[in-house]
């Protein structure tokens, strides 16, 4: 890549926007360093093109990638890295009746390399780290998955929990005497807000002789 901020979207699409196995392998060999590493919460991978190609093609077979939406790209030229927030749409073979939207943030550490054809200095991926915004394993669970994956449902549940908390808070303020509230607040402020070592220092101790 000569301009990572503009070209990283093309790299991501070449990897997960329903490519063929050959297109995916060609993209890895072109855009990744020969000793590139990959960090993922669910798998451990060896270094190098061969390991990355095997991982990507296995994931593509299992997840059945359909599309990818690039949400945002952040390029830090000083630290030589790129951050990409994306939504990968897939249709796993076990859940062909519905699509999954995998929300994730990918951190790409870059390294300077020389293009053998043009002699120009280009950027290639040295390390990839994926961070899921939503856990894909929970998304796979029937009934629970669609609720967990739905922003509307989570918004409604969050609103209901907020209202319930406010009602409980107001009931506490109305029903519990002020003196009890004051004692509870004093205990919370003295012991629960202070660091553990300071809590220990508040009690008298005897040194062994």
Automatic annotation (TrEMBL):
It holds the Pfam family NTF2_SigF. InterPro entries: NTF2-like_dom_sf, NTF2_SigF. Coiled coil: none annotated. Residues 1-168 form the SigF-like NTF2-like domain. PANTHER family: CHROMOSOME 1, WHOLE GENOME SHOTGUN SEQUENCE, SNOAL-LIKE DOMAIN-CONTAINING PROTEIN. This is SigF-like NTF2-like domain-containing protein. It comes from Marchantia polymorpha subsp. ruderalis.
């Amino acid at each position: 890549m000569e301009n990572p901020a503009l070209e990283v979207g093309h790299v991501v699409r070449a990897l997960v926007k329903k490519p063929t196995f050959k297109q995916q392998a060609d993209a890895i060999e072109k855009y990744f360093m020969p000793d590139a590493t990959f960090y993922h919460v669910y798998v451990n991978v060896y270094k190098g093109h061969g390991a990355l190609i095997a991982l990507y093609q296995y994931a593509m077979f299992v997840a059945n990638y359909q599309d990818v939406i690039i949400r945002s790209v952040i390029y830090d030229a000083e630290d030589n890295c790129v951050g990409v927030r994306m939504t990968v749409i897939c249709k796993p073979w076990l859940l062909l009746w519905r699509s999954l939207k995998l929300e994730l943030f990918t951190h790409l550490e870059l390294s300077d390399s020389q293009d053998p054809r043009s002699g120009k200095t280009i950027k290639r991926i040295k390390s990839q780290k994926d961070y899921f915004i939503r856990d894909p394993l929970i998304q796979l669970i029937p009934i629970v998955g669609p609720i967990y994956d739905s922003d509307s449902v989570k918004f409604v549940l969050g609103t209901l929990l907020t209202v319930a908390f406010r009602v409980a808070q107001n009931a506490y303020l109305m029903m519990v005497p002020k003196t009890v509230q004051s004692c509870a607040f004093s205990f919370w402020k003295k012991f629960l807000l202070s660091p553990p070592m300071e809590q220990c220092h508040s009690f008298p101790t005897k040194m062994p002789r």
